[in-house]
Design a protein that fits this description.
Blueprint: H1 9-18, H2 23-35, E1 43-46, H3 48-63, E2 75-79, H4 106-113, E3 117-122, H5 161-168, E4 174-179, H6 185-191, E5 194-197, E6 217-222, H7 225-235, E7 265-269, H8 279-294, E8 298-302, H9 310-325, H10 345-356, H11 359-372, H12 377-398, E9 404-408, H13 424-428, H14 435-439, E10 444-451, E11 457-464, H15 469-483
Parallel strand pairs: 2-3, 7-8, 7-9
Antiparallel strand pairs: 1-3, 4-6, 5-6, 5-10, 9-11, 10-11
Helix pairs in contact: 2-3, 5-6, 7-15, 9-11, 9-12
Length: 493
């Protein structure tokens, strides 16, 4: 039998249903692989018992002739931003070290209800703040990819770097991620996998540790488009516990998959041709245009004139919301508590936050507090919200002439760890292509399109209309079928 860990979500699901192998065999294979992959630092907590319990339930149901659940037999990784009952959840921050939730996030519960099993909690940038997975309090996640002839560790992208590294390395067939400004799509591009951020509100935020509440959205990361569609169907749905959750039926995205784009129009936004873009990114973008035209789509040029303001607007709005959300971490109720001798309440707050939050989190809290302060609220935060409205209107106008947009996912391939960490602005620029659609709450997906001259993955991004995840998935499938991307990292760990 071929290595079960080479199989994706659909293949595992179908194999368990047909009896080609048992769910326990699958779980055992992934558990062993996870245990051997410590150098990647992708997992913060391993939960083999949970994975095996779900697998045994699937095998028992099949033996009894029962209809299997949609994800029966499929073990997955869970980003450590999702609260998991009885399993440590830290958002990769010391300030939540030792926190064990007494409740389950809606997204993770939906997945368990669909039959999935949990292999463990995945490492991430602290509180989802970062683009390289270098801000985790528990060490950097390492990409399974390497530059030829070099042992320099590469960034797996962020903040969902543990998820992208684990999927790319074959430690799990799929994983959850969260995307605030690109944290599913950029790491997917860096590691040669697929990932989709659905429309804001498609997946409940209840039980997901908040970064920026008007932007955070959960989504799946997997090896291909079909697997993303399968996982998203299980994750999505209305949740009365989340005031921003959309009261919408969950479409059957997998059944609706089609690589034909006949009658569809694909927009190419001119503003995404930024200065200094590597020739390889430009060439891949053109290849993507050619692939979608071959799939039957009409290619049209569109303009999103306020794109250049998206990044600065995002880095005002997101830190502002973060400074409010993270105020709850004070050492009083849960998590870390630093109480210097003779300290009062304010001293405890200061000591706990100084010890618990990392440098990037502190930087964003300070920015957010500054732009929300009385003297600067109108000058910065109010203006940024106005720009956000203009960006959303740009997309609305674009939909008058096209059905989806095609852009690069990131301005470069994966960089080495430490290469950009000394320059926050250079790091923030990694989100230049992903932030606009996040500000507008639109569904967007990254699919691998090819390799750069150093043999590292490059991704293409599809952005869709609100609630048109099907259109995004179909365009992604059209690219996937034509790109023929099969590259995998060579095992070195």
């Amino acid at each position: 039998m071929a290595d079960l860990t080479d199989l994706g979500v659909a293949a595992i699901r179908d194999g368990v249903r047909s009896g080609a192998f048992s769910a326990v065999e699958v779980a055992d294979a992934f558990i062993v692989k996870v245990a051997k992959a410590k150098p990647l630092n992708a997992f913060l907590v391993e939960t083999p018992d949970a994975a095996l319990a779900a697998a045994r339930a699937a095998d028992t149901a099949r033996a009894a002739g029962e209809t299997l659940k949609p994800l029966a037999g499929v073990p997955i990784g869970m980003k450590d931003l999702f609260c998991t009952k009885g399993v440590a959840t830290t958002a990769a921050s010391h300030i939540l070290e030792g926190f064990v939730p007494t409740y389950e996030s809606t997204v993770s519960q939906n997945l368990w209800d669909a039959g999935a099993g949990m292999l463990g909690k995945l490492n991430m940038d602290q509180f989802a703040m970062g683009s390289s997975n270098e801000t985790s309090a528990f060490g950097n996640v390492i990409s399974p990819w390497r530059r030829p002839g070099s042992d320099a560790p590469l960034a797996p992208g962020g903040s969902s770097g543990g998820s992208s590294s684990a999927v790319a390395a074959g430690l799990c067939p799929g994983a959850t991620g969260t995307d605030t400004g690109g944290s599913i799509r950029q790491p997917a591009a860096f590691t040669g996998i697929s990932g989709i951020k659905p429309t804001y509100g498609r997946c409940s935020r209840w039980g997901t540790i908040a970064f920026a509440s008007s932007l955070d959205q959960a989504g799946p990361m997997a090896r291909d488009v079909r697997d993303c569609a399968i996982l998203l169907e299980a994750m999505a749905g209305f949740d009365a516990k989340d005031a921003t959750s959309l009261r919408q039926d969950v479409p059957r995205w997998e059944a609706g998959l089609s690589g034909s784009l006949a009658g569809k129009r694909v927009g190419v936004p001119k503003e995404y041709r930024v200065d200094g873009m590597p020739e390889e990114i430009e060439a891949l973008w053109q290849a993507g245009i050619d692939w979608l035209r071959d799939a039957g789509a009409e290619i049209v040029d569109v303009s999103l004139p306020h794109t250049k303001y998206a990044l600065p607007a995002y880095y005002i709005i997101a830190p502002a919301e973060a400074s409010s959300n993270l105020a709850r971490y004070d050492g009083v109720r849960y998590g870390l508590r630093e109480l210097p001798e003779g300290a009062g309440l304010q001293d405890m707050y200061a000591a706990t936050r100084a010890a618990g939050f990392g440098p990037e989190v502190k930087r964003r809290i300070m920015i957010g507090t500054y732009v929300l302060s009385a003297g600067f609220y109108d000058a910065y935060y109010t203006q940024a919200q106005k720009v956000r409205t203009l960006i959303a209107r740009d997309f609305e106008r674009a939909w008058e002439s096209c059905d989806v947009l095609l852009t690069p996912t990131a301005p470069s391939a994966a960089f080495a760890l430490g290469e950009k960490s000394a320059d926050p602005i250079a790091m923030y620029l990694n989100d230049v292509f992903t932030v606009p659609s996040s500000l507008a709450g639109l569904p967007a997906m990254s699919v691998p399109g090819g390799l750069d001259k150093q043999g590292l993955p490059l991704g293409l991004q599809i952005i869709g209309k609100p609630l048109d995840e099907q259109g995004v998935l179909n365009a992604g499938l059209a690219i996937e079928q034509r790109a023929g991307f099969t590259a995998r990292p060579q095992t070195w760990w």
